[in-house]
Amino acid sequence: MDLVIVMDASGSVGFDGGWRPTIQYSTQLINLLPISRTNVQVAVVRFSDGPRTIVELGEYSDEADLRNRIENTERPGGRTNIPSALDRAYEILKGSSRSRPDVPHVVIFITDGNPDLEKDRMVSATTRLKDYAEVIAIGVGNKVSYSVIHMIAKRDDWVIQVNKFTNLTATLTKVLQETCVVSVLPTPTPVPPPKGGKYTLMLTYA
Fold first, then answer.
1. Which residues touch 175 (CB under 8 Å, ≥6 apart)?
2. What's residue 22's pLDDT?
3. What value does the mean pLDDT take over residues 117-122?
4. Residue 104: which domain range?
5. What is the number of structural domains in the chain?
6. What is the predicted pLDDT for the residue at 179?
7. Closest CA to 161 of 2, 44, 31, 18
8. What secondary structure letter does DSSP report for 185?
9. Do 64 and 196 contact (CB within 8 A), yes or no?
10. H helices within 96-190, ranges in order?
11. Does pTM surpass 0.70?
12. Residues 192-197: contacts with CB within 8 Å, 24+ apart?
């Protein structure tokens, strides 16, 4: 699987209510996946006025190093350019030197859903990305626009509330079951898992 995690770092996403859960979600997600250049490759994009690729696709093959890079990502604030972030995710999956056409393409898009730049491109940007990738949308922040979150997600049941990590686990598993052969081995720990607890997704491709 080629996966792009897109994180809203704009000013409308508060720190405690938005940015901190975004980082927590993203790092916990890494715990779910067998990270390697031959199994799950991950790219990370941060956006506000525009997108910035924090981790190139497949740049990290070590899970701990990837988590550390995400945890140290700064939030610049600024405005919320969702269409440009959607475009960046598409460009990474379609045109990166490490992108693979023969594996599932998944985007996890974390935002408050309140674009204030290039709003006229929302429909075209979301349509292009969803035509190429499976898109899960997670709402964060104090004032989430779920109409926009639903527009971003490929399906309505792929929209997740920020405080429900169990839903992320279940939804990601469902996406992968529909795009590849997946065995899910949960450990019996509370969710979000405590330090040292994790879920593991074992992936093979049909």
1. 104, 106, 134, 136, 158
2. 86
3. 82
4. 2-204
5. 1
6. 62
7. 18
8. E
9. no
10. 122-132, 146-152, 165-179
11. yes
12. 192/24, 192/28, 192/165, 193/28, 193/31
